[in-house]
Amino acid sequence: MSEDKKRKVSLVTGATGQDGSYLIELLLDKGYEVHGIIRRASTFNTYRIDHIFQDPHEKNLRLILHYGDLADANTVRKLIYEIEPDEIYNLGAQSHVRVSFDIPEYTANITGLGTLRLLEAIKDYEEHTGKKVKFYQASSSEMFGAAKPPQNESTAFQPRSPYGVSKVFSFYITKNYREAYGIFAVNGILFNHESPRRGETFVTRKITRGIAKIVAGLENKIYLGNLEAKRDWGYAPEYVEAMWLMMQQPKPDDYVIGTGESHSVKEFLEEAFRCAGVKDWGKYVSIDPRYYRPTEVENLVADYAKAREKLDWKPKTGFKELVKIMVDHDMKQYGPEANAKK
Ligand code: NAP
Ligand code: GDD
């Protein structure tokens, strides 16, 4: 068998997202051939993976990008038959909770039904080829919704948004295809995880980027919604390792991944302004009700004991360190020095 045949092959949906980019780096480091699904856009949308992009004209490519969409079952199916992946990571989603109230049907179609489209294609592929494919579903702590913290694998879901409801559908359809058809399908129930690559409209990045722009004199306010909500925030690169570990277990199962600590949005704000050396932060922040959600998730705290025991996984980066990583990055990218250079 040639070297190429022995190499593990993975397919990643959501390849251009925060987690997709870190996961692809990890899989490439581990020697995988990685196929990523990206959406066609009229503007470039690959900035998170540009640093690992490989020119399709090169020989022995290990990162191959394909156009596709989770709304398009045909293409997804065709790609699975063509690529013959050993592992599929389904990270693609309309992933913004507030936006899911504005576009609930689209969110259900992509974040919910998109998972079913993949699983149906895997079921057919396994039946017709006799080959096995492992499937990772990006489940979310948003599924716990109103459930009292701490939340673990036994906590009943009480979703509070069209996004959360769509993820609950995906969770159960993944479990159902595991039980009904023997597919190696796992749910990683990940609590919020952040990084300098976090989308700019999620609250942590909105804050760190906003502060850098305020310090550079480019903006004078950050407009936010509910400052009292609490989240269990971890560091994204560590969370993609947990995804991979779940896929290497002898049996498929579901795991909660988080830090076990929660902080309010207000605490994140205070810490971020402190890191940037700005006092009297109150004058730079205003509340805009448009950022409130019709139904809010008040407090998420992970009980990740199962992952610690079975996967030997635990978080390494604490809350303050995470805030510093993000502030330092955005100060470099948008702060006074970056602005002067421009
Ligand atoms: P993200 O940065 O918003 O990335 C989402 C990815 O999905 C992007 O690559 C996006 O493509 C792609 N996508 C959107 N609509 C699509 C469609 N119709 N077809 C195919 N791809 C589509 O999200 P993330 O933070 O990396 O999260 C990754 C996954 O984990 C998501 O499923 C998210 O819901 C879930 N999750 C995230 C967290 C967290 O705290 N980050 C926690 C729990 C679960 P474009 O770049 O073209 O928009
Ligand atoms: N986005 C946003 N923008 N959130 C705000 C704002 C604001 O201006 N002001 C306050 N918040 C509050 C939200 O109401 C919420 O309680 C909290 O900040 C976190 O919001 P997000 O950063 O948007 O994250 P999320 O918790 O709703 O969803 C993220 O984590 C989920 C896991 O629990 C996303 O990454 C989801 O895809 C993921 O599943």
CATH architecture of the largest domain: 3-Layer(aba) Sandwich
Associated small molecules = NADP nicotinamide-adenine-dinucleotide phosphate, guanosine-5'-diphosphate-alpha-D-mannose
Give the proportion of residues in helices: 40-55%
Count of helical stretches:
12
Structural shape: globular
How large is the radius of gyration? 20 Å
Span between N and C termini? 53 Å
Low-confidence stretches: none
Beta percentage is 15-25%
Strand order of the largest sheet: 3-2-1-4-5-6-11
Compute the average pLDDT.
96
CATH fold topology of the largest domain: Rossmann fold
What does this structure look like?
The chain is of the alpha/beta class. It folds into two domains: 9-195 and 236-257, 3-Layer(aba) Sandwich (Rossmann fold); 203-230 and 262-295 and 317-341, UDP-galactose 4-epimerase, domain 1 (Alpha-Beta Complex). Helices cover 42% and strands 15% of the residues. The protein has twelve helices and 13 strands. The chain has helices at 3-6, 18-29, 73-83, 97-102, 104-129, 162-181, 203-215, 236-247, 265-275, 305-311, 319-334, 336-341, and strands at 9-13, 33-38, 63-67, 87-90, 134-140, 184-190, 193-194, 222-224, 230-231, 234-235, 254-257, 263-264, 285-287. A seven-stranded parallel sheet has the order 3-2-1-4-5-6-11, sandwiched between helices. A two-stranded parallel ribbon has the order 7-10. Helix 6 (162-181) links the parallel strand 5 and strand 6 (184-190). Helix 7 runs parallel beside helix 9 (265-275), helix 7 packs across helix 11 and helix 9 crosses helix 11 (319-334). The longest helix has 26 residues, at 104-129. The protein is globular, with a radius of gyration of 20 Å. The protein starts with a helix and ends with a helix. The mean pLDDT is 96. Residues 95, 97-98, 140-142, 191-192, 201-203, 206, 224-226, 229, 231, 265, 291, 293, 296, 300 line the site of guanosine-5'-diphosphate-alpha-D-mannose.
